Amino acid sequence: MSVPTTPAPSPGSVRSSASAAVLRSEARLFGREPAVLFWIIAFPSLLLTILGLVPSFREADEALGGRRGIDLYVPVAVILSVLVAGAQTMPGVLTGYREHGILRRLSTTPASPKSLLAAQIVLHGAAILLSVLLAVTIGRLAFGVAFPEQPAGYVLAIVLTVLAGLALGAAVSALSRTTKIAQTVGTIAFFPMMFTAGVYAPVQVMPELLKDIVGLTPFGAASLALDQAAAGDWPSWSHLGVTGLWAALLIGAAVRWFRWE
């Protein structure tokens, strides 16, 4: 009698299953980091709420074209979540995995190190998306901030901003040998980028020369693009182009210098 045999799974299906397992494992670990979830998801909306409770931020200002300060800070809250993920949390995770040999050990299993990198990008991207939805919803329900009047342009600007932020995280990880270095570099970059994003003062109220300079940075351009889309205009292609160019450059740097061990 012939004994029926079960065909061996294909290499592609094995890799897919392994990648799914890595994603599930990383999702569980990600969910056990309340501090990370707070800073990416909750902190931008908390800052938005605090600013919205200041009476002057809820009053129309002629210098802002009749808009209110709180109207300008919803896009800033969106970018802030990207900055936290890209400059603060993601580099430490990836560098820690490399420093402790986890990426090297993964290379001997069906789940390649690329699976772990992809899982981190997916999870941080999902956390940013939740933060964006929370900030837009709180702005609307609590302070009457209108939903973006140019939703397609707003989504495009967000996609480019997220790409730039996560590419920044990958580049910092690529250039940092240890977790401590990654955290230091990320922190050094974080505060100037908060300024260019308009956290300390909206980009729209900056002097023209300073606004032009800030508009050449990835998150300054992103802030201007998001504000234009929120006001109902299609984001300037120059602002979208600057953000996209920075994303491409940072991705190129990450690919060029990233090491699995």
TrEMBL record:
<feature type="transmembrane region" description="Helical">
    <location>
        <begin position="154"/>
        <end position="175"/>
    </location>
</feature>
<keyword id="KW-0812">Transmembrane</keyword>
<dbReference type="InterPro" id="IPR000412">
    <property type="entry name" value="ABC_2_transport"/>
</dbReference>
<feature type="transmembrane region" description="Helical">
    <location>
        <begin position="237"/>
        <end position="258"/>
    </location>
</feature>
<dbReference type="InterPro" id="IPR013525">
    <property type="entry name" value="ABC2_TM"/>
</dbReference>
<feature type="transmembrane region" description="Helical">
    <location>
        <begin position="181"/>
        <end position="201"/>
    </location>
</feature>
<keyword id="KW-0046">Antibiotic resistance</keyword>
<feature type="domain" description="ABC transmembrane type-2">
    <location>
        <begin position="35"/>
        <end position="261"/>
    </location>
</feature>
<feature type="transmembrane region" description="Helical">
    <location>
        <begin position="70"/>
        <end position="97"/>
    </location>
</feature>
<keyword id="KW-1003">Cell membrane</keyword>
<feature type="transmembrane region" description="Helical">
    <location>
        <begin position="36"/>
        <end position="58"/>
    </location>
</feature>
<keyword id="KW-0472">Membrane</keyword>
<dbReference type="InterPro" id="IPR052902">
    <property type="entry name" value="ABC-2_transporter"/>
</dbReference>
<feature type="transmembrane region" description="Helical">
    <location>
        <begin position="117"/>
        <end position="142"/>
    </location>
</feature>
<dbReference type="InterPro" id="IPR047817">
    <property type="entry name" value="ABC2_TM_bact-type"/>
</dbReference>
<protein>
    <recommendedName>
        <fullName>Transport permease protein</fullName>
    </recommendedName>
</protein>
<comment type="similarity">
    <text>Belongs to the ABC-2 integral membrane protein family.</text>
</comment>
<keyword id="KW-0813">Transport</keyword>
<dbReference type="Pfam" id="PF01061">
    <property type="entry name" value="ABC2_membrane"/>
</dbReference>
<keyword id="KW-1133">Transmembrane helix</keyword>
